[in-house]
Amino acid sequence: MDLTLGGHYVEYRSILTHLTGGLIAGGLIGFERSFRGRPAGFRTHTLVCLASSLLMLVTMYQWKWLPGVPLETVKTDPTRMAQGIMTGIGFLGAGVIYKEGFSIRGLTTAASIWITAAIGILFGVGFFFPAVVATILTVGILAAFRWIERSIPTEKYIHYSVLFDRDNPLPETNLRQLLKDHGFSISTMSYRITGDGRYIEYKTVMETRRYRNASNLSETLRTMDLVKGFRISPSGD
């Protein structure tokens, strides 16, 4: 090892380059998440990427752990450090996934934290080209693919329930026709008596191509005197 002033300068510059790359990459990805109002945003992603880079740097400077001990006696497997980082990130990612009604949210943010950690590992070991490419692709996926995803015609599922007076319900055939007229298709419907026997409730899962249909249906149900209560819950991330 070169212990001269010049040798230390090269070493410190290399460390600074690795950590700065991780900081910038995590910041770029986190900025997009903060812009979208996600709970894990700018600071979280920056810290994840920087921490991953820092931990991988530890394996690259093994001789610093035990000064004076011959280098050939200090041996660790860098891949085990990477595995430990990704395992720890699993717990952090699970913390941003939550259930809201019938929807599961936070999956994309959890995935972005996961890949941010992977990018940090690449910067930590000095694999700069794939790290930079992965950063650009990740930001592009989070930003541009959102527009593409919204443009793709997909089936959207909505959980729906409506209450009627037990003695004066809307006939099921009429209810099915109402849903069909608003652009929904349904297969099966469940029924139950609720409200201390005062109401009958119809429940189903509907499929549509446009979430706007749910808003139109809500406006129609709101003006119907027969309807005593309803719930429309879109499913999605």
Written overview of the protein:
With 237 residues, this protein is α+β, with helices and mostly antiparallel strands. The chain folds into 2 domains: 147 residues, no CATH class; 79 residues, ACT domain (Alpha-Beta Plaits). It is 56% helix and 16% strand. Strands 4-5-3-6 form a 4-stranded antiparallel beta sheet, covered by helices on one side. Strands 1-2 form a two-stranded antiparallel ribbon. Strand 4 and strand 5 form a beta hairpin. Helix 2 runs parallel beside helix 4, helix 3 packs antiparallel against helix 4 and helix 4 runs antiparallel to helix 5. The two termini are 52 Å apart. The model has no long low-confidence stretch (mean pLDDT 82).
**How much is the average pLDDT?**
82
Radius of gyration: 27 Å
Q: Give me the side-by-side strand order of the main sheet.
A: 4-5-3-6
SSE string, helices as H and strands as E: HHHEEHHEHEEHE
Share of residues in strands: 15-25%
Work out the oligomeric state of the chains in this entry.
Answer: single chain
How many domains in all? 2
What does the largest sheet look like? 4 strands, antiparallel
- How many individual helices? 7
Range of helix content: 55-70%
Shape, per Cα inertia axes: elongated
Please report the total strand number as a whole number.
Answer: 6
Any low-confidence stretches, pLDDT <50, length ≥5?
A: none
Q: Structural class, from helix and strand content?
A: alpha+beta
Q: How far is the N terminus from the C terminus?
A: 52 Å
